[in-house]
Write a structure and sequence with these properties.
Helix content is about 40%, strand content about 25%. It is built from 10 helices and 12 strands. The chain has helices spanning about 10-20, 25-35, 45-50, 55-95, 100-125, 170, 210-215, 270, 285-290, 300-305, and strands at about 5, 20, 135, 140-145, 150-160, 180, 195-210, 225-235, 240-250, 255-265, 280, 315. It has a 5-stranded mixed barrel with strand order 4-5-10-9-7. The relative contact order is 0.15.
């Protein structure tokens, strides 16, 4: 499974490098829903991309980001006061008598104060950290699709909820952020051949056994340990990762546009590092054929997925 990836969050790069158009209405609806209390996870890098967009549409989107940030600041400051009060109470208790309960309360309060303070600092400082471009299941990313022969960029949630399915699919099938190539005409038959997309990434992340990531056997008596590994093309290059997507609608609910990355058997170097699946990087020359599929020609679509961009993956322990 590809549980995390480092993606292009700057939607303008799709415009500059792939001639894509932006679905401003979809970006607007997503950012507006967040100001209305919708539980949507948007990476800081996507907010930063909106901040850097000085077009009229970009400024309208930024107004929604600013509105949300103002709302969030109020909530965070209220939480900060609560944790400061909790810390003061715990320290007062510890002055009288050292107890496990008071010590644990102090530790939790200190940890939360640090996290809240960092979050507040991040809202006022949009300079990006390395982790700000990563997506995880449930977070949003720009995805390039085909519409009437044109490339279009929409924000989508990384975990696909197929149209027509109940909202409970998110918990009933928590692994739907990946679509197995050998199940495209099964579980994914409503999307394969109909709604295809591409996400541009520079790396993907997997949980693997430490000894395999280090290219060795388990030592005698060693307990297996799982670590997070970052996989990148070697030499470095951007990856056009194939995905499927769907627009889900229900009465009284906001539309949900979501996607799943297609995965297949891993190349030897990924398998040797301890993982049993791998994303599917497309050849650039196959981009439009993938984005504008014909459901009557599924064998040609499988051929595109097999004719993937040749590359070798290197790996390192994730920071």
């Amino acid at each position: 499974m590809c549980y995390s990836a480092r993606v292009w969050s700057d939607y303008r790069r799709y415009v500059r490098e792939y001639g894509a158009d932006l679905s401003i209405s979809d970006f607007h609806d997503l950012l507006w829903s967040r100001t209305q209390g919708a539980k949507v996870s948007i990476p800081p890098a996507l907010d930063a991309a909106v901040a850097a967009d000085q077009s009229p549409d970009g400024r309208r989107l930024w107004a929604l980001v600013e509105q949300y940030h103002a709302q969030l600041q109020v909530t965070l400051k209220e939480d900060l006061v609560k944790q400061q009060e909790r810390l003061a109470t715990a320290e007062h208790s510890l002055e009288r008598k050292v107890t496990k309960t008071a010590s644990e309360s102090r530790r939790i309060a200190q940890s939360k104060i640090t996290a809240i303070s960092e979050r507040l600092e991040g809202l006022s400082n949009l300079s990006l950290q390395a982790g700000d471009t990563r997506i995880f299941p449930g977070s949003y990313a720009p995805v390039m699709v085909g519409r009437e022969g044109h490339r279009k960029v929409l924000p989508m949630r990384y975990q696909c909820r197929p149209a027509g399915k109940p909202a409970s699919y998110d918990t009933q099938f928590p692994g739907t952020y990946n679509a197995r190539l050998d199940n495209l005409q099964g579980f994914w038959r409503g999307q394969f051949g109909y709604t295809h997309g591409v996400v541009v990434t520079s790396a993907f992340f997997e949980n693997v056994p430490l000894h395999m990531a280090e290219g060795r056997a388990l030592a005698p008596g060693e307990t297996p340990k799982t670590v997070v590994v970052e996989f990148k093309a070697d030499p470095p290059q951007e990856l056009l990762l194939a995905c499927l997507w769907s627009r889900w609608s229900a009465d009284g609910e906001n539309d949900l546009v979501s996607f799943a990355l297609i995965t297949d058997e891993p190349p030897p170097e990924v398998a040797a590092a301890g993982h049993d699946r791998c994303v599917v990087p497309l050849r650039p020359e196959n981009l439009d054929a993938w984005l504008n599929p014909d459901p009557r020609g599924v064998q040609g679509l499988y051929a595109i997925l097999r004719d993937r961009q040749p590359m070798r993956f290197g790996h390192q322990l994730a920071a």
